Recover the amino acids of this structure.
């Protein structure tokens, strides 16, 4: 009694948790019909109420549309049957070449018959009434049956799931807001793997865009958009977004077999749902597999008939079989009665064969296949190596999966005319155990997938039926404009930031001066040197001195001044004379730092260091050049870093006037390196970089990093220790300021128009200078109260005080205080 209650409760629970599902399954390709039949039957086995609506198109397909689900059939008219048969009959499919244009020609040949039958369904009011009354919870059909999604709305079905009986097609990426990566994902009908040559990538790129354009042109025709607008009003159905609106996209692919690529959470891979436990072979087939040690199965599927194969290709296959007489060959052939291969002892010809059961038998050594997704899946799950001879459509891409997994060889169908080629491929695979071992590894991976394809299918369909349209899984990119999606509104301003001077040289650098596209690996490898401090990379990018100067100005936000003309020409002249790399290394080692920081800031989130190129005497470009010329450890107080904002202006004649006293008081006793700019009355413009403190001395001084840089009348530079002399006090030696042949300043500054002195230390160094000045002042005040012995001019104390910046007359007078004793800091 309790057992009866248990079964009753189980039945009630089952009814409550089952859904009414409609699967629309048009018959225009056996593999398509079979895939959706498998979906319907699996959902039926899971306890759901499934109805399959089959729409007849191809009269040669005898598949019922489903074996376990209920079936409703929409028969095709004679007109539709004739139109479809005429489009694919004969040897057309065998002679079709693999180009995208030929493949699209096939599509256009049967599109008219498909559209005609679609219209028959669209205007079938009786069918509409039947479907409406069923009140289905969810509808399922293939993605290119777009008009069916509109009919789901007419029939009152609010939730729909898309299916696709092949690997994810390139034209579907856009529907879900994904970019199609043509650089490593082959198009739906392209004979490539993810490792493409330049020419293959070019073909793949062109194929994708051409097919996208053509499919978009046919979109309104296949979706019956105009008919929906006329009958139900504009806005009732929008075919352009309907595929992406699905709850899930069920794809006939497997992540452990197919090429990995970008997918959204809506995309569910269920390849292998039709793989069942194989049945024992009949005595007939068991006997055939036992005839010889090796057996090869040859089948080209159901769409392209073997009987329509051109004679030269058929003869090539038969000749191959004759040559390999120690191997049993099983050939699927639609008309054995025509006498094909009747005299070949090791050939077995059959209209039909138990392909799945044969593939599961370890005595089958090799499968020669057309590369249909169903066959590729079956042989992969069963661990059988193969020679793939694709004829058309996605077979071209599917076959390459075997090559990628190293479980088979791909062969051009036209090469069948030469028996040497097929013979060679068969021998290669049978004699090389690697193919069999790889096939067995692939088989194990597929069978041990953590979550099986059947479970994934059932759970996701049930989830969709419960929750309906799953907008939460949509990528935001689905609704973006082209400008937003490809970041054109960001890229264009960035290109403007780069400017003409940067954009073209950088593009040539990244693309190696060719029209080649830039792969991610190439971009990374090319970017790495840009982060290094070696200036030679910029010489590689900017071939001409003029270009590198322009780039320096642009990336430092500097506009060329009229006063820069002669200096710039002088720099360019020296670069051409010495070579860019040598000139930069010797004269201005960090000239390209601004370019490097600018490019890095555009490639990363790192902010540029804000540079200060202001000067009362030099132009910003001249100041940039000076700062880029100096040793960063000495003049910027940081190893390898340009921190120019730490410079302090000690003296500026535009503020302090050209005053000997004020110069001494503001500059002397500053213990860190300084950069001094002199503009002389003769037009000469000189910069002295001194790595020691300023002082009056009868001797020359300056360390290894002391430099003189002439800006005008022409650029010259000399780095020389012990070459700088400054004596503004000691009458016992020549007075004035001098640096070799470059600079000579009179003791009273009479030949100086302007002076600017920058301290290269930190704020503490300026404080130390001020303390030193205070000490000197106190010492001077003490001495003013002490009687002076003897001749004062000969007194050694006078010399010491003068060296300390204290000016005294022949008698004795107060410390001469400048008006401005505190340095201005900028």
């Amino acid at each position: 009694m309790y057992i009866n209650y248990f079964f009753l409760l189980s039945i009630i629970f089952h009814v409550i948790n089952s859904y009414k599902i409609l699967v629309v399954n048009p018959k225009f390709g056996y593999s398509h019909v079979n895939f959706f039949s498998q979906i319907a039957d699996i959902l039926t086995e899971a306890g759901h109420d499934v109805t399959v609506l089959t729409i007849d198109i191809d009269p040669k397909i005898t598949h019922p549309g489903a074996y376990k689900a209920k079936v409703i059939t929409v028969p095709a008219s004679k007109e539709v049957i004739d139109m479809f048969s005429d489009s694919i009959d004969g040897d057309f499919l065998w002679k079709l070449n693999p180009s995208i244009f030929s493949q699209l020609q096939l599509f256009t040949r049967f599109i008219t018959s498909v559209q005609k039958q679609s219209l028959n369904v669209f205007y079938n009011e009786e069918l509409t009434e039947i479907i409406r009354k069923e009140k289905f919870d969810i509808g399922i059909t293939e993605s290119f049956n777009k008009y069916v999604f509109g009919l789901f709305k007419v029939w009152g079905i609010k939730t729909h799931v898309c299916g696709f009986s092949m690997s994810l097609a390139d034209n579907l990426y856009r529907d879900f807001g994904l970019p199609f990566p043509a650089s490593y994902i082959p198009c739906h009908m392209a004979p490539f793997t993810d490792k493409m040559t330049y020419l293959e990538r070019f073909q793949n790129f062109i194929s994708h865009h051409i097919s996208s354009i053509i499919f978009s042109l046919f979109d309104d025709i296949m979706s019956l958009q105009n008919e929906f607008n006329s009958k139900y009003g504009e806005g009732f159905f929008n075919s352009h977004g309907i595929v992406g609106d699905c709850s899930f996209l069920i794809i006939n692919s497997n992540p452990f077999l197919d090429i990995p690529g970008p997918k959204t959470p809506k995309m569910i891979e269920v390849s292998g749902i039709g793989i069942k436990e194989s049945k024992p072979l009949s005595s007939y087939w068991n006997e055939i597999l036992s005839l010889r040690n090796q057996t090869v199965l040859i089948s080209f599927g159901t769409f392209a008939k073997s009987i329509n194969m051109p004679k030269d290709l058929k003869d090539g296959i038969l000749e191959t079989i004759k040559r390999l007489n120690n191997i049993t060959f099983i050939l699927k052939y639609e008309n054995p009665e025509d006498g094909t291969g009747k005299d070949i002892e090791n050939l077995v010809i059959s209209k039909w064969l138990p392909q799945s059961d044969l593939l599961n038998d370890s005595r089958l050594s090799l499968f020669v296949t057309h590369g249909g997704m169903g066959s590729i899946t079956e042989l992969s799950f069963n661990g059988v190596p193969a020679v793939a001879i694709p004829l058309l459509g996605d077979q071209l891409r599917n076959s390459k999966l075997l090559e990628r997994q190293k479980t088979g060889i791909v062969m051009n169908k036209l090469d069948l005319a030469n028996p040497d080629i097929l013979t060679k491929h068969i021998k290669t695979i049978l004699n090389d155990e690697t193919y069999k071992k790889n096939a067995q590894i692939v088989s194990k991976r597929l069978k041990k997938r953590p979550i099986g394809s059947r479970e994934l299918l059932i759970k996701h369909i049930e989830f969709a039926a419960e929750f309906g349209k799953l907008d939460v899984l949509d990528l935001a990119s689905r609704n973006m404009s082209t400008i937003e999606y490809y970041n054109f509104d960001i890229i264009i301003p960035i290109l403007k930031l780069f400017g003409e001077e940067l954009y073209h040289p950088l593009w040539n650098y990244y693309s190696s001066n060719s029209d080649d596209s830039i792969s991610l690996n190439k971009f990374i490898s090319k970017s790495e040197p840009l982060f290094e401090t070696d200036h030679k990379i910029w010489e590689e990018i900017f071939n001409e001195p003029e270009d590198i100067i322009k780039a320096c100005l642009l990336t430092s936000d500097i506009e060329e001044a009229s006063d820069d003309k002669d200096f710039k020409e002088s720099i360019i002249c020296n670069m051409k004379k010495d070579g860019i790399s040598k000139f930069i290394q010797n004269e201005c080692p960090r000239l390209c730092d601004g370019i490097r920081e600018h490019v890095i800031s555009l490639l990363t989130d790192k902010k540029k260091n804000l540079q200060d190129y202001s000067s009362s005497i030099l132009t910003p470009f001249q100041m940039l050049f000076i700062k880029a010329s100096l040793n960063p450890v000495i003049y910027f107080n940081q190893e390898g870093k340009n921190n120019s904002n730490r410079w302090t202006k000690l003296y500026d004649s535009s503020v302090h006037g050209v005053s000997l006293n004020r110069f001494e008081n503001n500059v002397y006793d500053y213990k860190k390196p300084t950069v001094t700019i002199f503009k002389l009355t003769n037009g000469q413009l000189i910069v002295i970089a001194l790595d020691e403190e300023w002082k009056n001395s009868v001797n020359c001084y300056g360390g290894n990093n002391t430099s003189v840089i002439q800006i005008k009348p022409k650029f010259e530079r000399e780095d020389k220790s012990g070459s700088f002399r400054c004596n503004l006090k000691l009458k016992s030696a020549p007075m004035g300021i001098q640096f070799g042949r470059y600079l000579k300043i009179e003791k009273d500054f009479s030949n100086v128009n302007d002076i600017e002195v920058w301290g290269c230390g930190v704020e503490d160094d300026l404080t130390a200078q001020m303390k030193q000045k205070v000490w000197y002042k106190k010492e001077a005040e003490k001495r003013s109260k002490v009687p002076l012995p003897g001749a004062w001019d000969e007194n050694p104390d006078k010399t010491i005080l003068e060296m300390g910046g204290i000016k005294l007359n022949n008698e004795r007078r107060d410390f001469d205080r400048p008006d401005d004793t505190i340095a201005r800091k900028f």
